[in-house]
Design brief:
The chain is an alpha+beta fold. The protein has two domains: 148 residues, no CATH class; 261 residues, Heat Shock Protein 90, CATH 3.30.565. The protein is 55% helix and 8% strand. The chain has a five-stranded mixed beta sheet with strand order 1-2-3-5-4, with helices on one face. Helix 2 runs antiparallel to helix 3. It starts with 5 loop residues before the first helix and ends in a 16-residue tail after the last strand.
Length: 465
């Protein structure tokens, strides 16, 4: 049995007596109208009730009716003050009145019950349960005292007020608790969605960093080999140059060791089978399109003659271009089944331009919630029959084993959809544009800047260290 401490009782009484311990209800139009009409009902019905059943008429009935109606309006602003005023008005009404027959309720008239229960119900929506219990006990004690002082003792007359004053506030308190729980649930869901979006972004950045660290580690390996072999490849090197090459090789080896350690950390949650697979580039695009064909996608690749050769395009730019096209094809498979896709690669010495355009899908897509579709929504392709456009965004899924150990882009996807696209393009200081087309298709266009021709690194093969 739980023991109620005196300090708890005193704290509850202080809360019940303080006029500011219970916050008022929001002043909505609905709340104001309901309480205003209730107050009017208490005033009008209270006057007739006192006149007909308690032989109170004239100014006395008017004052008593208004005194019990005012607390109903006051509870919009000061609920606890309204309660004490309603209780005082009901006691002041009961003390001098006499029912005309034994069938009339006393000490609490019907309109007194209405006034007290309405105010107590409003308090129940904002106050803790212990305050409600305290107010209910005070009301029960006041009614019992009136019955005992007036006599004869008929405690059964307190039953209607006792039941109503308990059920109505408890019901309101339960409804208020349910509404508060729903509001908390909405907040938790919003926080969860924000955390999911943040986690998705971090996962995609980690995946991009892992791929780029592969590229950087490969370049570090090339630097080490070139520095080590320079004294044997170049005749008559002065001793200072040999020492300089030895120092470069040593620093490159140390940097490569640290890079491999970092790669080990980044790969801990990655697919072990693809850990040492080479990174794809522009040369693998025809294989990617052919793989998409085998998956049933009507995809076409067009590469402009002005596109620089792969040895003139940095490996990081090639990798980002490949991933943009791969993810775009995956999005078409997932969200525009049966559509025709045209991939265009254009550009010159200053920038590489990627365009992926798909037509409208053959059939409307099945309904899918935004959370199932992904975290960042974008307008997708609409069905031929007028189906709503779907998000292009997708969850992170493990890629199928494709050429060179890379994902196939045939519906499983390798990244986070538009999140990954934006991250890759932003990393290269490029531009990305996505838009739904009037015919129900979708267009993805990216511009990836290229370094000047004299700053292009020596030809290397993309790969992992």
């Amino acid at each position: 049995m739980k023991i109620v401490r005196p300090s708890t009782v005193l704290t509850t009484l202080r809360e019940a007596m303080s006029p500011n311990s219970v916050a008022p209800l929001p002043h909505t139009r609905r709340t104001t109208w309901v309480l205003s009409l209730t107050a009017l009902l208490v005033a009008v019905a209270g006057w007739f009730d006192l006149y007909q059943h308690y032989d109170v008429f004239g100014p006395g009935a008017t004052v008593a009716a208004i005194a019990r109606a005012v607390p109903v309006l006051l509870c919009l602003y000061r609920p606890l003050s309204a309660w004490w005023l309603a209780l005082a008005a009901s006691i002041a009404t009961a003390a001098p009145t006499h029912p005309v027959s034994d069938s009339e309720p006393w000490p609490w008239a019907v309109t007194s019950v209405l006034s007290l229960v309405v105010v107590l119900t409003v308090i129940a929506l904002r106050a803790p349960r212990r305050v409600l219990v305290a107010l209910w006990l005070i009301l029960l004690a006041a009614g019992t005292a009136l019955v005992l002082l007036r006599g004869p003792v008929r405690l059964g007359e307190l039953l209607p007020m006792t039941v109503l004053s308990a059920l109505a506030p408890l019901t309101a308190e339960a409804i208020g608790s349910r509404s508060a729980a729903q509001r908390r649930l909405v907040v938790v869901e919003e926080i969860g969605q924000a955390e999911h979006a943040r986690r998705t972004l971090l996962e995609e950045r980690t995946r991009i960093a892992r791929e780029l660290h592969d590229v950087v580690a490969h370049h570090m390996s090339v630097i080490t080999v070139q520095a080590d072999s320079a004294p044997y490849r170049i005749a008559d090197l002065p001793p200072a140059a040999v020492d300089e090459f030895d120092s470069i090789a040593a620093e490159a080896r140390r940097s490569l060791t640290e890079m491999r350690r970092l790669l080990h950390v980044l790969r801990q949650d990655a697919d072990a089978g693809a850990e040492h697979s080479p990174q794809p580039g522009l040369a693998e695009l025809p294989v990617l399109i052919e793989t998409a064909h085998r998956a049933g996608l009507d995809a076409h690749l067009s590469v402009a003659d002005t596109v620089p050769t792969p040895d003139r395009v940095p490996v990081g730019v090639q990798l980002s271009a490949y991933r943009l096209i791969q993810e775009s094809l995956s999005n078409v498979v997932r969200h525009a089944a049966g559509a025709t896709v045209r991939v265009t690669v254009a550009g010159d010495g200053s920038a590489l331009r990627i365009t992926v355009v798909n037509s409208a899908p053959e059939a409307p897509e099945a309904p899918e919630s935004p959370r199932a579709a992904g975290t960042a929504e974008a307008p997708g392709a609409a069905g031929a029959a007028g189906a709503p456009r779907r998000p292009v965004e997708t969850h992170d899924r493990t890629a199928d084993s494709g050429p060179s150990g890379t994902g196939t882009g045939t519906g499983t996807g390798t990244g986070q959809g538009l999140i990954g696209m934006r991250e890759r393009v932003a990393m290269l200081a490029g531009e990305l544009h996505t838009e739904a087309l009037p015919d129900g298709g979708f267009r993805v266009a990216a511009m990836l800047p290229l370094p000047p021709a004299d700053a292009t690194p020596a030809p290397t093969t993309p790969g992992a260290a």
